[in-house]
Sequence to fold (309 residues):
Amino acid sequence: MAYNFKEEMNKPERFAGGHRLCAGCGAGVMARNVLRAIDEDDNIAIVNATGCLQAATFSYPYITWEDSWIHSAFENAGATCGGMEAAYRALEKRGKVKEKYKFLAFGGDGGSYDIGFQSLSGAMERNHDMVYICYDNEAYMNTGIQRSSSTSRFTDTTTTPAGSVVPGKPQNKKNLTEIMVAHSIPYVGQTTFLANMKDLNEKTKKAVYTEGPAFLNVLAPCTRGWRYDMADLLDITKAAVETCFWPLFEVENGKYKLTYEPKKKLPIEEYLRPQGRFKHMFKKGNEWMIEEFQKEVDLKWEMLLKKCE
Fold:
């Protein structure tokens, strides 16, 4: 059957409204559209690590998720999902289960880049037929906007406050997407949501319907932690892509492919300026921070382009 994006967007919802995520939060948009990419007839078993997405979508006895759902601890979403998939395969082999299931794990950057990294890495190395989706909002938002290893350099957080002595977080952001590529798994995708959600939809479909482990890294801004106007969510993600801060690419069986290249690469200020967490970078005397940030973005972009040749 030919791919019809309009039909994809009109599928029945598997992520109900009425949750308690903030207006302008990227995590809910991410989850809703990831689930929309999966065929209506396919059953899904979902593992959700502790975090904003979990806390705001489940308050007993109410739940946002229409499919089977498990709340895992912060640190073990990968192991929980891998164990569930292994149990399913064993039961299927013995004829105890007839229905077909897809296995998904959702975790924020805290539960993926940091606390849950060993669990995620182990699940990918063990070759479980599952998809791990990281919604990257660049900090521990659910517990007070503390820095994570995903937090960008110079970011003002509650544990790296920008001031006269410390200019925000001093370290660069970890590249989890490339770390997952190093696991030699069949599919890795980096995406976010632009106006039409097509890139997110297509990469989710590839990840879910590729046999074996797959990983998606989705930039999912946080209006509270990033300090932007809630109506500017899509503009923020568009700026992240157009400045090449967050390139859209995929790696299938080791082969890199750029899925979007800006016609004109914008300066990083276009991404930084709308966010209150970077406000200090635009004060007089702090121009060097923007220059350093731009250098890092340019370096990573050039390296990615070479890999995609």
